[in-house]
# Entry
Amino acid sequence: MTAWQLDPNRCFSPEPSQRAVASELFEKVRGLPLLSPHGHVSPQYLLDDIQSPDPATLLVIPDHYVLRMLYSQGTPLERLGRQPLGGSPYEPDSREVWRRFCANFHLFAATPTGLWLKHELIDLFGVTERPSAESADRLYDHLCERLALPEYKPRALFRRFNLQFLSTTDGAADDLSVHARLREAGLPVAPTLRPDAVVDPTRADWTDALAALERRAQIPVDDYPGYLTAIRDRRAAFKALGSTATDHAALTAQVERLSGPQAAATYSALRAGRASAVDAARFAAHMLFELAAMAAEDGLVMQLHVGSLRNHHGALHLRFGADIGADIPIATEWTRSLRPLLEEFGAHPNFRVVLYGLDETNYSRELAPLAGHYPAVRLGAPWWFFDSVLGMERYLDAVVETAGITNLAGFVDDTRAYPSIEARHDVWRRVACNWLAGRVVRGLLDDDMAPWAAEALAYGQVKETFRLG
Amino acid sequence: MTAWQLDPNRCFSPEPSQRAVASELFEKVRGLPLLSPHGHVSPQYLLDDIQSPDPATLLVIPDHYVLRMLYSQGTPLERLGRQPLGGSPYEPDSREVWRRFCANFHLFAATPTGLWLKHELIDLFGVTERPSAESADRLYDHLCERLALPEYKPRALFRRFNLQFLSTTDGAADDLSVHARLREAGLPVAPTLRPDAVVDPTRADWTDALAALERRAQIPVDDYPGYLTAIRDRRAAFKALGSTATDHAALTAQVERLSGPQAAATYSALRAGRASAVDAARFAAHMLFELAAMAAEDGLVMQLHVGSLRNHHGALHLRFGADIGADIPIATEWTRSLRPLLEEFGAHPNFRVVLYGLDETNYSRELAPLAGHYPAVRLGAPWWFFDSVLGMERYLDAVVETAGITNLAGFVDDTRAYPSIEARHDVWRRVACNWLAGRVVRGLLDDDMAPWAAEALAYGQVKETFRLG
Amino acid sequence: MTAWQLDPNRCFSPEPSQRAVASELFEKVRGLPLLSPHGHVSPQYLLDDIQSPDPATLLVIPDHYVLRMLYSQGTPLERLGRQPLGGSPYEPDSREVWRRFCANFHLFAATPTGLWLKHELIDLFGVTERPSAESADRLYDHLCERLALPEYKPRALFRRFNLQFLSTTDGAADDLSVHARLREAGLPVAPTLRPDAVVDPTRADWTDALAALERRAQIPVDDYPGYLTAIRDRRAAFKALGSTATDHAALTAQVERLSGPQAAATYSALRAGRASAVDAARFAAHMLFELAAMAAEDGLVMQLHVGSLRNHHGALHLRFGADIGADIPIATEWTRSLRPLLEEFGAHPNFRVVLYGLDETNYSRELAPLAGHYPAVRLGAPWWFFDSVLGMERYLDAVVETAGITNLAGFVDDTRAYPSIEARHDVWRRVACNWLAGRVVRGLLDDDMAPWAAEALAYGQVKETFRLG
# Structure
């Protein structure tokens, strides 16, 4: 039996002339440092620098894209190590969870999760056989052994991945002292402010989030000016710790500009519990405008990702909470929705906004045309379900002809699965090089321009877009 | 002049390495039996076992996809053997119809209809020249001769096609005695209940359909409980004759859950002619929920296909009735629309729902994510206009990365063109194998996993999805 | 250093068997005359027959797709030779503009604009080095020299391009005497009526446009019958000068049929300033119906292109006017919107409508099915952002399987960039041939049918669709 192997030409087209160009381009960019300005790694994990003791705890239980697939094929989350909310906590049987994962590894055939896991297992962990019911225990023991070694500690992996910059995602009221200590330790890690909870009064946790904001900023948020000051204060605190960007999620891209008095009155009504649901939604839409104004002031790059209907499966959400793989996209509109924001700040020299979506129809119809006009707009990486070989290819196919290379924001891995970071960047770089190679061999890109374009997609555009210079 | 021939490598990529893998995979699955759990073949046709006497009657006049293309290029339906409603019936001149079809055969170049017809003519009927004005009469005579032979009788074709299971589509009030006789004759044919007419009060025929239901079920439908009992009775009658699934068409995927008393009151108002159009639509949306509840009880797989605006061309509809090729798709929303149904039954162990649509934008945005989460959801085959080489490829490209192989429902031919059944499955199997081969040669699917995936797409997934075990 | 060169196999697939077929098909059609029945070349430019003196004036300043890309990367329009409205006019420094363009030529890598420019520069102007900061001055001098030669005069290019027919785009009140003189000069150039300003009362210029219409037609437009008569008069005047088509832009495809009295009353209310915005929109939707009725009468082919939200960037629009690259597409609906028009005229023997859109999701979902049914419907070329290699491929992929070859309207270049006309048709012909070659080598199109299909897509379909016979 031959060993389970990674194809050195994976992701490349099989057509020999394209493969040759792709391979040559990839050799030029594969060794570039990784920039990861958008992700969900825990800063505490990097500070503690202690690795998970077993592969289920590291690779299965916390990864909702692994869980999602197993759940969709009938495995209850309880049997995958997830604990129902409110129950007495218990230690999951990691070996059992790992066995279930291995016995179902075929479910990941031809999926990006399968590709990343294969990369990690073979390249990072030296695995030589595919997970299966039969190999599960051998792999478990092998991986536990490896995970105990110093070279698998989080910071050792950080160096191995050649990470030049990594950003976490943090709430407006989060204690940033962990970040301060990471900076002292010399790690190129910065927080990213994601203030959704304090700017969206349609959320159930808005009032609590404001209270926490007030405590953290030590600024009263009783009225609208105080509220804005507190948010500005947090932006400054993040920036002082190396932030270059903020992150914003919304169900739609709707932006509305309220006048100052209108906004202040709505804020007061919301605080007093006298505002309607419509007012709450309008205020949230207005706050996107207000946050753009702040970004034009302080120069933090605004990231906006829209279109995910969170926690679609209510019963499961009640039982297990968020992030269990039941966020489902909806159709998105950008052209009219974002217009008030873009008309005001789209040509502002200090403003930059990166747009991410889950509705591929927007790529060629709205996002590439917007990025191909407004100086402030950069088109974000294919997000989430499209962070995949074919998803990336459809993205490049749909946007480059209209927006060019230089209006793209490069790649972000957007992951909480820390060991997968290298694998994800590897896929992007391979796909980007292969896509460019396709242009070259069809006579649509000068061959002496392709290395420039490959470097831009693999590294330069993300550095420039996120002001990491 | 060389004979008109089927390319033995049709549908495969021209790139040699992919073609080699595709061909190898296809050889492993091409001989598997056909499962056809969703289609529109007449059970009477199989019971009578009498073949159409000429090729126009068999291949042209009843196939609205053939008619549609000829009509779009200016041939009136009357000249294609279709008779206006309400006129005195007459025998169409089959040879004339056939001549018109042959003279226009170039219209089908590069279309799936053209591909199926070519397969049938060459492989099934031994034709060696392409239809044209010049060859029309020779082909007509040749085909008439063939059709008179016993090996072209419907049941002989059934055996030739290696059909292991075939399902028809039947109304709630349809007499199932034909099906009982087919069972007695040992044919693996079952009915599929399509109760649209009795569950959608926005339809003009709702009242008549209810009367027919009452007569067939011998259960009074005066009130809501009786109505539900009558529907349950029909489901049981279908199940007793081998049904494993039901089929439901709707313009949108809108589901709404009315309380029992609300539903009963609305039913009564509808029956009394006192309900508004809005009430009618809400009741129809509620009935999808109710039918899902019944499916969770009796285990019949629920098929839901949405997004076709029927009879778009009103004048032609008045003149020739339905099914003349003027059903046009509209944009579809699934994520919010289907949520009430999925939240209630999406994880029910006895419930299964297969989703079909005509809006490709749903594939990656909504359908694959839903199928990749809810255990009850299977993603139906590319439907109708997408039952084609490129349509299938776009489908696989868009859904497998998110939903994997095992959340797909395999293939259904959905045809009333009986002689095309083998050709349609042949195309699907070729395209699926070629798609998997593409994954293999790009290093994205382990080569020793590909045969499993090919078998799953060609046969296993449809068997498992439709509970044909 | 090797010369900058056009790949003779550009646009073709690199796979050798497909490339061979594509190349063979292309050789058969590359020399066919060009038909350009939809474009924005100025008739005055052809009448004057004087070429622009320098490359910035010819290739940069008037082309909003060139400007758009440079603007999106931070170059203000003022520095690209565009003059703010209302300021004192000045002579732009063409050499400076050209230098800026050349220094940024890499922005056009892998875009259609880049491909057309490369074609023009090398093939038309004999350039041998790529534009760059370093080469800018040499190229400027070379191009100025060339532009002074008689073979670069507009009519000489007309002959060189082998243009068999070219249509301009003209308002309802435009003076057609230029066209009369072009006809006298023997040029196969015709006007195309684009009456948007007189049929859409939601526009700010509607009243002025009506006054101009009245003056031009010498027919009072005080009431609705007069208004219709004036429009009919203009249609006849255009037709007398060789027009075979009209052109209509709308934000949506919404058509509504008002009764005669309703329409007349609404018209009067609009004229008196007593109508609501809703009335104005309904009247515009009604006028699409009315224009279709006129087209069924006079046989002018109706072109309808929808889905562009014009002048998205308000501030820039105020400063520089329209056509500065800030028109952004929106999602479009055709199936229900166009139904009233198609039900009435979709099968009318004298009526023909060509549909263009900027929302690719319509291709397979709505447009191909409509074109594949209604005899009057032809599916227009991929418009605007999709007039590109990949855009054309997605179009063909999405529509041919459903609509076939013969329901497509072939190609239109839709350009105001006169020197790019040949390059654009070259791209379409190459892409079409390569696409057909892909069908051939996959066994999905008989190889002896491919030349017919190539000729149809390259030439025949546009001739037939636009009644240029």
Observations:
- The first strand of chain C starts at residue 34 and ends at 36.
- Strands of chain C lie at 34-36, 163-167, 189-190, 245-250, 301-306, 308-309, 328-329, 353-357, 377-379.
- Residues 68 and 325 of chain C are 5 Å apart (CA to CA).
- Residues 277-298 of chain C form the longest helix (22 residues).
